Every structure is written in structure tokens, then in C-alpha cells.
From TrEMBL:
<dbReference type="InterPro" id="IPR020845">
    <property type="entry name" value="AMP-binding_CS"/>
</dbReference>
<comment type="function">
    <text>Catalyzes the conversion of acetate into acetyl-CoA (AcCoA), an essential intermediate at the junction of anabolic and catabolic pathways. AcsA undergoes a two-step reaction. In the first half reaction, AcsA combines acetate with ATP to form acetyl-adenylate (AcAMP) intermediate. In the second half reaction, it can then transfer the acetyl group from AcAMP to the sulfhydryl group of CoA, forming the product AcCoA.</text>
</comment>
<dbReference type="GO" id="GO:0005524">
    <property type="term" value="F:ATP binding"/>
</dbReference>
<dbReference type="GO" id="GO:0046872">
    <property type="term" value="F:metal ion binding"/>
</dbReference>
<feature type="binding site">
    <location>
        <position position="520"/>
    </location>
    <ligand>
        <name>ATP</name>
    </ligand>
</feature>
<feature type="domain" description="AMP-dependent synthetase/ligase">
    <location>
        <begin position="86"/>
        <end position="473"/>
    </location>
</feature>
<keyword id="KW-0007">Acetylation</keyword>
<feature type="domain" description="AMP-binding enzyme C-terminal">
    <location>
        <begin position="536"/>
        <end position="614"/>
    </location>
</feature>
<dbReference type="InterPro" id="IPR025110">
    <property type="entry name" value="AMP-bd_C"/>
</dbReference>
<dbReference type="InterPro" id="IPR042099">
    <property type="entry name" value="ANL_N_sf"/>
</dbReference>
<feature type="binding site">
    <location>
        <position position="531"/>
    </location>
    <ligand>
        <name>ATP</name>
    </ligand>
</feature>
<dbReference type="GO" id="GO:0019427">
    <property type="term" value="P:acetyl-CoA biosynthetic process from acetate"/>
</dbReference>
<feature type="binding site">
    <location>
        <begin position="416"/>
        <end position="421"/>
    </location>
    <ligand>
        <name>ATP</name>
    </ligand>
</feature>
<feature type="binding site">
    <location>
        <position position="528"/>
    </location>
    <ligand>
        <name>CoA</name>
    </ligand>
</feature>
<feature type="binding site">
    <location>
        <position position="316"/>
    </location>
    <ligand>
        <name>CoA</name>
    </ligand>
</feature>
<dbReference type="GO" id="GO:0003987">
    <property type="term" value="F:acetate-CoA ligase activity"/>
</dbReference>
<dbReference type="Pfam" id="PF16177">
    <property type="entry name" value="ACAS_N"/>
</dbReference>
Length: 654
């Protein structure tokens, strides 16, 4: 089938989903209506899904204008780790909380809620022993081991604010994040292990600490979890082994009562300009929202085995490996490895091994595994699977079909979940028993979410339309500010379209009211589901001594979704060679991390600029897409001849 035909298909709610589901069509309509017409009543009721030490009397107190202020359940008190662990102990202490599946298929571990309680308490007491207090920022730079979850939960237990940095980021990127939130306590591992290869996490931390010190942020303590047992550099008095410390502290640690609006975590994410922003989430609203979306979007039933393949370094890992599932007393699977190790059947083998009911992954992984052929899938039974999920980027209908028919044997609904680091949890997604599916559509809004499409002037578009996606009112999981820079929060999200939260995404709404995300409309790239600002890659490139100027754009890539295309102008007198290309790729990897590796580098004597000096990215995008037939108006360029040279030397010829 052609793409258009696939997109025109509708997959009615499956009978199996319908008979089983928590929400059906009528209930969705009713609840949605109440959630947007009377948010105080709706969330006042659903806020009680978590336990409060002190009940809230106020529910919603939010404003998207002026200084922008977002508060939910503001006079309530609770604790996240208490909700994710302690409250399950009375009746379900022996239920498995975390199934850990190692990189090596022969390694796995099961941690019950009782065990989780002890681990997290000890971890929290070690943090306290080293002087970590409520409100302090703790940087976590860990691979996918249970200790990463213990560390996060331990922070929440004592009211410290964690900043998890993805283990694939470079020492520079890590150092910058340590500096931005002035974090003086770092938790890491000796090494990580992915696809049989080790990642030098502790060595990277050492470098990052030196970088931070140059910016006057001095890390006082590094807590190191042993994973591979390799020798690592050691600063005595600063570095401590977790296994030495855990036995020296008590196995119980009372959870700190936290106000609903106390900071919970900071997570850095890329925007269209400048360095990554510290997205700040707070305690009460976030937990209510992630637990509620986890339950209804995944149609989670008590006892289900749930697996999200993301890394805890991204928001998906925060909300849907750790906080949402554990708040719901789920068994959450944490996978240390990669989809193609030891071979391309690993995901499907793990599903059989642990009898996974709900499986949540990214389109980039689906496309890569689809390319490996069906045999890897067919050798597994996948009979335990009931539901599939997708996140991170638009899923192309071809990949959707394969996921549905081959992986899910046409028995499992696919929930395509659109959301962002900023939104905390799912925003637009099907509900398994309530929503008919269309391949490639994120479908309809979750409870309390008011999406709108606007044109470039901010005019609200009605009915079937194509426009910029904004959200008209607040929901409990929304970010509260950019850490340390509220003005940037207002500028980035609420100034483009006054009084509305701007998502940065383009979107189409069809005649059935379904939302189809078309991708970013700003200068943010989505490479293998990872967000990356073009400005970040540009600044990494120009930090190389031979580079004078750089402009970076995305281009369609069959596996990654988007690839990274770099236009580079060199310092006078230097030649663009293949060796230099390789050197620049290495340089960007060192500055940001492997996820930012340029796919194409084109050397050019100049960039297309307007007479006022603005780079015309539209032209660069077209050339990178090898679609330069319709470049549009180039008459405003300072030097139109630049374009001919760019076309002649393009790196992406058909
Ligand atoms: C994109 C990841 C289409 C989108 C949870 C968004 C998606 C950005 C989808 C946020 C989806 C995420 N369909 N696009 N189901 N999910 N996106 O902050 O462009 O890493 O703005 O959060 O990913 O990426 P982030």
C-alpha cells in the first residue's frame, strides 16, 4: 500500500481491548468534557489517586499570561518516593517492582517493592551522610542499572532535586549541566555497558568536574556504583564507592513531607536557541499526571509486566520507566542493552523471557528492526503482549503497519503518544478501549489537554486544518519554569502566541478531529527520537579552530527520522578534506556526544544570507533534502551566487 492509503486506514478499537479496557468511548467523552470544562472538579477528584500527607484544598491556580505562574494542588503535601514505594508495602511488598535485564542476556535481577524500599532508604541515608539536603541539586550520570532508579527515588525521598544526564553525553555537556544548576554532588558508575561495549562514565565525570571547576562550581562528592569492576581514577576524600557506604547507614529513612510545588527534578533539553534549558518539574501535579497517563494510555491493569525501552536519561525514562509505573505499583522492566545485541531479535526475546504485557518503544528502533527482517520477530512467540506504544517522533505509517501486524500479530492496539520533556506526560494519545486508530496519528487529547492549531499570526484554526500546535490551558504535569531563568521560560513558550503554550511542533487535524504531528517547526532536530538544537551543533562546530562559520539543518533519514547536515565555512587558507570532515565529526562527538554526530558535512565558501546578515535556513534545508527545484525567492540574498555553489557541492545527491 502507498503511504496515503495507509494513512487513510482506520483500525477500529479491537474487541480484545474493548472488553478489557478501563476507558471506553462513552467514558472518554464524558471524562474529557468534564476535564476541560471543570478542571478543578476533575483534577480535584483524580488528584486523590496519590496519597497526600496533607490534603490539598486548592486544585488549579495557573496563568499563561504576564509572569506565567503554574500551580497545582498547591497547599497539599506528599512525597514521591513514598507514593512509588511505601504505600504498596502493606499488601504488595513481595510484588516485583523492577525487572532488570542486563546487556548480557544471561544476566537479570528482580527487585521486589520490599527490596526497593530498603535500597532507596539506604541510598537516601548515604546522600544525607554526605550532607545532601532538601532543595540541593544532585547530578545523576548513570547507565541503565537499578541503582539509577534508587538514586532518583532517594533524592525524592529527602527532597533533593535530581538532574539526570544521559550517559551518552560528553564530559563537556555533563560539565555544562553541573554548572547550570550548581550541583555539587554527582552519582555515577565506574562504567556502563551497552551492546558489549563499555562506556567510561567515571572518567567522564572526572573530566566534567574539572570543566565545572573552571566555571567556579566545585563538586564536593562523587558516589560511584560498581558495575563492571574496572579500575577507575580516584580522588580520595571526594569519591566514594556505593557498596562501601550502603552498609554503614540505616535501612530505613523517613520520607520528607514535600509541598506539591516543591521542585522534583531538572531535566535539560534542547531548544531552538542557546544552550539546553533546565526543564523544572515539581512534585504533586507531575506525579498525579504521570501515574494517570500511565494507567489509562497503557490501559495498565494490576499485575501487568510493563516495558519501556527508553533510557532514564530522557523524560520518557523518568515518567514511564520510574515514576508513572512505580506510582501505579506496576512491574517495570529496565533494560541495560541495545536492540541489536547480541542480535536484532533481542527485544522480542526479552518480551518472551519476562512475559511482557505492555511494550513501549521509539519509531527509530522499529524502523531499524523492521530492516532486519521478520525472521528475528517470528522466532519469538510474543503471546504475552497486549499493547504496543510508540514515542519520540512521528511514526511513519509503514513502520506503524509493521509494528501492528508483525510485532503485534494484529492483536495489539498501538498507542502513539505525543508529548514532550516540558509536558511531563502524554498529551495526545489513543486510549486502547476508546480510540479507533489511524497509522501515523497521535489521535486525540488526554484528559485535561486543550490542543489548538494556530496559523503563523496566531489565528485559531477550526475544523480540519494544518498549523502550529499550541495548548490553550494548563495541565498538572506541565513544567513550571526553566531552572534559574523564568524569563526564558516565558519567552520560549508563551510569547510566540500570547497566552498559549507553544509546543514547537507542526500539526494537522483531520475531519475526525484526529491530530497528526508533522514535526518541529523550529530549529530543533529529532535524531533517532533525541532532541537536539541546531544551534548546539553549530556552536560545537565553530569551537573547532579551523571553522569560521557553520549552519546546521535536518534532512529526512530512513532510520533516524532526521539526519544532521552541516554547512561549514573554514578559516581563510584552509581546504575542506575528508580527513577534516572526520575530525569535525569527532570534535562534535566530543563536545556534545555521539547522538550529535554529523551525517553530512558540506564545505562552502559562504552561507546564503540576507543583506541584514540572517542565514536563510529555508534554502539550506531544501538543498539538504536534495529538493532545490523550488528554492523560492532568493533575490533578497546578499550574494545569490552562493546558492549555485551550494547546489553544485551538495552531499546528498539522489
Ligand atoms: C517529538 C519525548 C510525533 C515532537 C517524549 C516533540 C513526537 C518532541 C511524538 C519532544 C509522537 C515526541 N509523534 N512527534 N508520538 N513524541 N515527538 O522532549 O517533535 O525528547 O516536540 O520528549 O518529540 O521530544 P522530547
Amino acid at each position: 500500500m502507498q503511504r496515503e492509503e495507509l494513512m487513510a486506514e482506520t483500525y477500529p478499537v479491537l474487541q480484545s481491548a474493548e472488553s478489557h479496557a478501563l476507558i471506553d468511548k462513552a467514558k472518554y467523552e464524558k471524562w474529557y468534557k468534564e476535564s476541560v470544562e471543570n478542571p478543578d472538579k476533575f483534577w480535584g477528584k483524580h488528584g486523590k489517586r496519590i496519597e497526600w500527607f496533607k490534603p490539598y484544598t486548592k486544585v488549579k491556580n495557573t496563568s499563561f499570561t504576564g509572569k506565567v505562574s503554574i500551580k497545582w494542588f498547591e497547599d497539599g503535601q506528599t512525597n514521591v518516593s513514598y507514593n512509588c514505594i511505601d504505600r504498596h508495602l502493606e499488601n504488595h511488598a513481595d510484588r516485583v517492582a523492577i525487572i532488570w535485564e542486563g546487556d548480557d542476556p544471561s544476566l537479570d535481577r528482580k527487585i521486589t517493592y520490599r527490596e526497593l524500599h530498603e535500597h532507596v532508604c539506604r541510598f537516601a541515608n548515604v546522600l544525607k551522610k554526605y550532607g545532601v539536603k532538601k532543595g540541593d541539586r544532585v547530578t545523576i550520570y548513570m547507565p541503565m542499572v537499578p541503582e539509577a532508579a534508587y538514586a532518583m527515588l532517594a533524592c525524592t525521598r529527602i527532597g533533593a532535586v535530581h538532574s539526570v544526564v544521559f550517559g551518552g553525553f560528553s564530559p563537556d555537556a555533563l560539565g555544562g549541566r553541573i554548572v547550570d544548576c550548581e550541583s555539587t554532588f554527582v552519582i555515577t558508575c565506574d562504567e556502563g555497558l551497552r551492546g558489549g561495549k563499555s562506556v567510561p562514565l567515571k572518567a567522564n565525570v572526572d573530566k566534567a568536574i574539572d570543566i565545572a571547576a573552571r566555571h567556579h562550581v566545585h563538586v564536593k562528592s562523587v558516589l560511584v556504583v560498581r558495575r563492571t569492576g574496572t579500575d577507575v581514577g580516584w580522588a580520595s576524600g571526594r569519591d566514594f564507592w556505593y557498596h562501601d557506604e550502603a552498609g554503614t547507614v540505616a535501612a530505613d529513612c523517613p520520607p520528607e513531607p514535600m509541598n506539591a510545588e516543591d521542585p522534583l527534578f531538572i531535566l535539560y533539553t534542547s531548544g531552538s536557541t542557546g544552550k539546553p534549558k533546565g526543564v523544572l518539574h515539581t512534585t504533586g501535579g507531575y506525579l498525579v499526571y504521570v501515574s494517570m497517563t500511565h494507567q489509562y494510555v497503557f490501559d495498565y491493569h494490576d499485575g501487568d509486566i510493563y516495558w519501556c525501552t527508553a533510557d532514564v536519561g530522557w523524560v520518557t525514562g523518568h515518567s514511564y520507566i520510574v515514576y508513572g509505573p512505580l506510582a501505579n505499583r506496576a512491574t517495570t522492566l529496565m533494560f541495560e542493552g541495545v536492540p541489536n545485541y547480541p542480535d536484532q531479535g533481542r527485544f522480542w526475546d526479552v518480551i518472551d523471557k519476562h512475559k511482557v504485557d505492555i511494550f513501549y518503544t521509539a519509531p527509530t528502533a522499529i524502523r531499524a528492526l523492521m530492516g532486519a527482517g521478520d525472521d528475528f520477530v517470528k522466532r519469538s512467540s510474543r503471546s504475552s503482549l497486549r499493547l504496543l506504544g510508540s514515542v519520540g517522533e512521528p511514526i511513519n505509517p509503514e513502520a506503524w503497519e509493521w509494528y501492528y501486524n508483525v510485532v503485534g500479530d494484529a492483536r495489539c492496539p498501538i498507542v502513539d503518544t505525543w508529548w514532550q520533556t516540558e509536558t511531563g506526560g502524554h498529551m495526545i494519545a489513543p486510549l486502547p478501549g476508546a480510540t479507533d486508530l489511524k497509522p501515523g496519528a497521535a489521535t486525540t487529547p488526554f484528559f485535561g489537554v486543550k490542543p489548538q492549531l494556530v496559523d503563523n499570526e496566531g489565528k485559531v484554526l477550526e475544523g480540519a486544518a494544518d498549523g502550529n500546535l499550541v495548548i490553550a490551558d494548563s495541565w498538572p504535569g506541565q513544567m513550571r519554569t526553566v531552572y534559574g531563568d523564568h524569563e526564558r521560560f516565558i519567552q520560549t513558550y508563551f510569547s510566540t502566541y500570547k497566552g498559549k503554550y507553544f509546543t514547537g511542533d507542526g500539526c494537522r487535524r483531520d475531519e475526525d478531529g484526529y491530530y497528526w504531528i508533522t514535526g518541529r517547526v523550529d530549529d530543533v532536530l529529532n535524531v533517532s527520537g533525541h532532541r537536539l538544537g541546531t544551534a548546539e551543533v553549530e556552536s560545537a562546530l565553530v569551537s573547532h579552530s579551523l571553522v569560521s562559520e557553520a549552519a546546521v539543518v535536518g534532512f529526512p533519514h530512513s532510520i533516524k527520522g532526521q539526519g544532521i547536515y552541516c554547512y561549514v565555512t573554514l578559516m581563510a587558507g584552509h581546504e575542506g578534506t575528508d580527513t577534516l570532515r572526520q575530525e569535525l565529526v569527532k570534535h562534535v562527538r566530543a563536545e556534545i556526544g555521539p547522538i550529535a554526530s554529523p551525517d553530512k558535512i558540506q564545505f562552502t565558501p559562504g552561507l546564503p544570507k540576507t543583506r541584514s546578515g540572517k542565514i536563510m535556513r529555508r534554502i539550506l534545508r531544501k538543498i539538504a533534502e536534495d529538493d532545490f527545484g523550488a528554492l523560492g525567492d532568493t533575490s533578497t540574498l546578499a550574494d545569490p551566487a552562493v546558492v549555485d555553489d551550494l547546489i553544485a557541492n551538495r552531499q546528498n545527491k539522489e
